[in-house]
Design a protein that fits this description.
With 118 residues, the chain is of the alpha/beta class. The chain has one domain. A hairpin with a 4-residue loop joins β3 and β4.
């Protein structure tokens, strides 16, 4: 997977709710998945890109989100749960385990690593 494929997958998810997604803002939350094995790349992303100081409840644009998640391309989070909040706000709850595309979850959705949570 690369940055453009990741963005296209995110756009596919957004089209389920929004025709025009350019004004949508994102909140990123993280899940440490206690008891799961993390490697040094996971720790790097947790301590830098996805640190509380960097995220801190900020509202992000789609381009900011894509750039953040693409920092270790071709490695991406194992999964990202999508929650449609109030109008124009989407929460992305992400795994902090970054893996190669062959092991990323939710391939069956057609837009891995995303899954929409109702």
């Amino acid at each position: 997977m690369n940055k453009y494929k990741f963005r296209n997958n995110l756009v596919q998810v957004l089209h389920a709710k929004y025709e025009n997604f350019q004004d949508v803002r994102f909140i990123i939350t993280t899940d440490m998945e206690e008891g799961k094995a993390h490697n040094s790349k996971d720790d790097y992303m947790r301590l830098s890109i996805f640190s509380e100081g960097n995220l801190g409840g900020r509202l992000l644009t789609i381009e900011q989100v894509v750039n953040m998640f693409s920092s270790l391309a071709p490695l991406y989070p194992l999964w990202i749960k999508v929650y449609f909040k109030e109008e124009g706000i989407v929460e992305l709850n992400t795994s902090l385990r970054f893996r190669k595309p062959s092991v990323i979850k939710y391939k069956e959705t057609g837009y891995p690593p995303f899954t929409v949570v109702e």
